[in-house]
Structures
1.
Amino acid sequence: MPFNLLSTVLLILLSCTSFALAQQGTKDLTELLQSNENLTEFTTLLTSYGDIYANLSFQSEVTILTPNNDAFNKIPYSSLGPAFEANQSQIVRSILQYHILPGLHPSESYNGTFAFDPTWLQNTSYTNVTGGQMVGGVQQAGPVNVFTSGMGTRSTLVTPDLRFTGGIVHVIDNFLIPPQTFTQTVPQFNLTAAGGAVENASLADYVNTRKDLTIFVPQNMAFQALGGTLESMPSSQLQRILDYHIVNSSTVGYSTNIPNGTVLRTRAGQNLTITFASNSLFVNQARVLQQDLLLSNGVMHVIDNFLDPNAPSVTANPEIPTGPPLLQGTSLSDNVVPFTSYLPTSVTSFDTASASATGSFAASDIGKGTTAFGSAAASASASSTRTSATKKSAAERVESPRLELTVMGGFLGALCWVVGAL
């Protein structure tokens, strides 16, 4: 069935369902969004992807993390800006999918321990995690609920538990950012030595694309302490050391999945042991400094020292802040950070995606959310009349098929009557 016809049928059925629910006095997704003045921008975005919108409206248990209007105003200043500005429809689609969680996740279900929940983002062009890319959720002091996403982004829950017939809407103050590859992520956390080392050891393709990875990443200071030795060793020897920091299994090692005593098999073929002591997480002897940094294909944890494949049985000493390095070696002159010259010269978030998409939303759409739902036809066909905010002309920008609902408006009531009669 052609896309436009299929979408038309879906939206007719959606409208009929909405009409029936309204008659029963039950608030559906359309009514919920329409009644919330702080969600007009999200409403415009959602309705520009008609298939996602229709699918959402027929769900029985789903949770939507909904950026408010202020979050849309921040887009030009975030890593999402170029995708919206260039109207990269497939990327924007993946961003939207990343805000949708299967199942019901009310605010009271979160506590002081991080929970990692899958999302609708399963497109392998943007994620390689079994079951869908994850988003973190935790309740902090206040209490305040916070959601974590790619690049360490934090989104605070500002309006919780807006119920609709298909589930829950949580309003958040920032967009979630889909996690990026290892190479794209490490510079954000000053892990440049590790990023360059995997390039030097011919491991970049593996750590960027292999499914369901857990990577323990030594901080730059750990590389500095051994820089002279590491840079002078054969790449095969460096690879063996780095392999001992990589775990590939059917379960990604988020902190909630690796309790005290967990044994993990590494790519090097030897085991790592997880210890929780003195309120800190350790892997072998190394202390985890920062945990649960999401990647497109798993997760990484920053550690204070290298792990030694020749000493897999060494244990943690929680009494000292940072233990001495197990690997012996020398630093470079002036304590230079090694391997940074191997980093790609240009590392960007969100690689250019295919322009053939089933919806589109560009930076120029921001501020036009008030048309959504109040005038379905205006929302559906606005791409032909909006003035571009980018340097490209409207003809050059990527636009996707839209549904011209105006011509259907006069027949909608009759069609709903017919569907009801059937």
Note: The first helix runs from residue 3 to 23.
2.
Amino acid sequence: MFDLPHGLARTKDLRESLRLDTQNVLIGHNGEELQGIGRAKLFTLNDLDAVKLFGTTFAPELSSLKNAAPTVESSPIKTSEEFGPFPSQLLFHEDYAEVNRTIVGMLALKWLVAGDYDAFTGQQFPAAKLRRESFDQLRELFMSGLQTEDDVYALLAATVVNDLGKDPDMPEKAARFLQEYPPNPNHDMVVYIAAKHGMLPLINESEGTASHEKLMQGLLFGSEVNIAQLAQAECTPGTLKHVKEIMAGQEHAFTLKFMELILDVAGADGHHDARCAKPMIEPVFQGYMVARQALMNIVQEKCSARGGYDEVLSHRGRLLTTDGFTALSVQDPYERALLRLVTMGRTTTKEQASWFDQAFRSLPYRIRRALSDGLNVDGIDDGVAIVPYYMPALFSEVLKTTSKSSKDVKVAALASLMRFLTRIYAGTKPVLGAKGEVIECSVAFAQNVVKSQDFENKPTMLDELAIPEASRYVSVVKVD
């Protein structure tokens, strides 16, 4: 029997849709008979009916997401009206960026399990489109990780709950519970704290079920290990120091959290284009699989935290070298710093990497040295390491802003961001034997500058932006 909260009327239809059809032969989009959880009715619904089902089941949570503060990359501007009504328009008759992103992530699960490669990759750019064999690999990961209906429910619920910490009212509501935690926790920690103290109805309603335990394990894991930050070299090795203890006996929770992350990334462009999992292109998929393997290697003691982290950087280097860019080594501090920059910049081609290289080289020696120092602090026995939270999103926005500009304009804009990042690092550098500490610094406050119409023509305006004290050191992540 499917283990879901009793008497919870709003989950009734979803509960029924997750029951397995053991009587009929069901054929997926790949022409093969569906097995396991693929036999649930949910995965045979059309997209419109699935959106309505998600909207009915998770109505309170999706309503809260209407208030969620948009991320740096969730501009409300859609690329074209021809894309049809967006999920939030169907559910609320208005556009809400975070609602659209969440629902598209949930649709991505449906496309994956159903083996619908065309729906999943439909509007992806051909040059970087997710390969069929990679889609099959990703699908196999989900099919093996989702063993029961409870697993599917926990994953869908986690996908909805994931961004509730972005609701500007959430930290205030949870204020009385936050005193025992580091100051100004990020939204992952806020959601975990809120769930732990009974502030999230969806979590409370699953109390006493297998779903509840899986949800809480996933929230705890996500509050302590940010896989997306590792995949983009946004974090530092120090954030991985205790990953073995965190993951001990929690392999299934890790798998569910990784699947949730994949769905989060898959839906990340849902506010622009809700027709497919547009961001989950081949290089992105490979990057996240490398990050997953790096974490597993650290847990199995096949490498150190630094070694696992550097494998993510080396993978980016190999990707760029394959396209003709100069080989870079993690053993050289300057080259390793550049590898971190191109990884945060999500570069996939020699041309893109050359812009970052030229921008880095154009910095005055003093600034380039300070930036290299900041990028090379691990936060493990070498002093204070700073995590520039949302920095990959700022790089992405700058590349979008200057997409039609000349190479010189692109390089100047990237150099401006690098000078800004140098100020964020605030003189930190590796000091062997010093007490290790990792601190998050949100750079989201700079988004209005890099998105402004003036930035392209005057990138030096970012040099004039003061760093708010409240943003400089917002959250202690780990201390030796």
Note: The first helix runs from residue 12 to 17.
3.
Amino acid sequence: MRDLIFVQGITLITPPSSCKAIENALSRNPDLTSLPHPRPDVVAPEDLSQTTGTAEILRLPEVQRAINGHFLILPCDLLSELAGESLLEAWMVHAAGIVGSSTLPGGLGVWFPTKGEHAVKGEETNFLVTAQAAQAIVPPASNSLRPSLSQVVYSSTTDTLNDLTESKHSFPIRHGLLRKHGRIRMLTTTRDAHIYLFPYWILDFLNQNPTFDSISEDIVGWWAKATWQDGLVPKLGLDRILNPSNSTDGAEHAENGNNNDLNTEIEEEIDLASMSSTHVSNLLTPPTTPSSSSEPHKLASAPPKVPPFLAYVHASTSPLIRRIDNPSLLLHASLHIASLNPSSTPLSHAHKVHPSADIAARTTIGQDVLVGANTNVQQHVTIKSSVIGANCKIGAGSRLIRCVLMDEVELGEKAVLTGVVVGARARVGKE
């Protein structure tokens, strides 16, 4: 994601309690100091805590001041090999309103499968309903993500789905959804990666709905339903956002740097889509003209078209996309990285055993093992399918199988560990 040339700035949002540790890591950790520009800025809002809702974070004044255009959201627990430029290209063509669109830009999210090679028992899942997305004029490249895009029409957590089906003894489907989309796809084994490409106007949408607490369930969920459910557009305040010229909010949009009205005027005067070498004109549809004096009134009273929120549903296990938010997932992902050949993927390490590590004689270290810097491994130690952090000390005669040891862990002599995650600076004896 660091290679996106359109990214003008990176902001890390953290609670005040973690701010100092993150700033120290950014200034001292070699893996972070070597990152290319732009250098990330750290924002620690006073009202932010570990339990603040994701939508509430976007509502904080410090966060809104840091956003001055379309923006990309990434979670702190993300592990991804997905090329960021391919995701941005898909959004720019389908949702950003660059070619021939008179509506505001749409959004894009990423979901990944929880079944298959990297399945972990008990992993959280989401309920996602999608429909076929409108096809772009420009055909996709062979390695493009665009053929895998679909339009989100319903999004919630699996727990919400279970509560609904338990109370209703079924899953009710509105007729409005089927009228709008005759064919839909329901997914129950995918998980929201919390990778979102949002247009700038979403901040106005959020501020007009103060009860929104979650990005996944509230912002994306209500946005998706507003594209097909009657009456939701004015109820959610989307009519004032999508048609700012018809409301008192138009001046406010201009002051906030939202220049979509200017873009729309330009696109109305110049048919940008027709300039594409791959554009096909629709000769069968004649231009429409008002047939009576009541026609302008009908057009003015019609609800504005809500731009779609698109989903990229990752269908395979390669490249890897996971969220690491519990010890089981951390263990599984760490062992997967340890099994990679050196420098084979962006996640793999250049050396299985760091050159500064001190490995004693008569020690067995398997091929699927990573050993960090300045770690000391004493004699008669056996390590298989494990990850050992930096500055650790492994006592003589110890045995580790499928384990993850954080930095500065000390193991006593003849310690035996299997399938565990040991936290940083922990001390473990042989008993």
Note: The CA atoms of residues 3 and 84 lie 7 Å apart.
